[in-house]
UniProtKB/TrEMBL annotation:
Residue ranges constituting the Protein YjdM N-terminal domain according to the UniProt record: 4-32
Family named by the database record: Belongs to the YjdM family.
Biological source species: Microbulbifer salipaludis
PANTHER family in the cross-refs: PROTEIN YJDM, PROTEIN YJDM-RELATED
Native organism taxonomy: Bacteria, Pseudomonadati, Pseudomonadota, Gammaproteobacteria, Cellvibrionales
Residues covered by the Protein YjdM C-terminal domain: 45-111
NCBIfam families named in the record: phnA
Protein name: Alkylphosphonate utilization protein
InterPro entries in the record: YjdM (IPR004624), YjdM_C (IPR013988), YjdM_N (IPR013987)
Amino acid sequence: MSDLPNCPKCQSTYTYEDRDLFVCPECGNEWAAGETAEEEGLKINDANGNPLTDGDTVTVIKDLKVKGSSLVVKVGTKVKNIRLVDGDHDIDCKIDGIGPMKLKSEFVKKA
């Protein structure tokens, strides 16, 4: 068994070395020796595993009840200009007709 590090992005064990970089054949991630996931910042993925960034537009994939209200965020609702935050509900956004909300990334997909 080799002593190469696992991929910091997808934790794959099939990494290989190419000159002074490590490469993951599963997700295509390349990193230099000594780099870690913490150095790259906040990593949040949508329901399909696509990486999200601040300012992205996402689509809701499940009807979501708004706690403390009779409102529902319907499937297919587009949410523009999201902001990623640390915590259980990792997306801060403003939804038209409802207002400011926090969403979980597992209930959205990148548009």
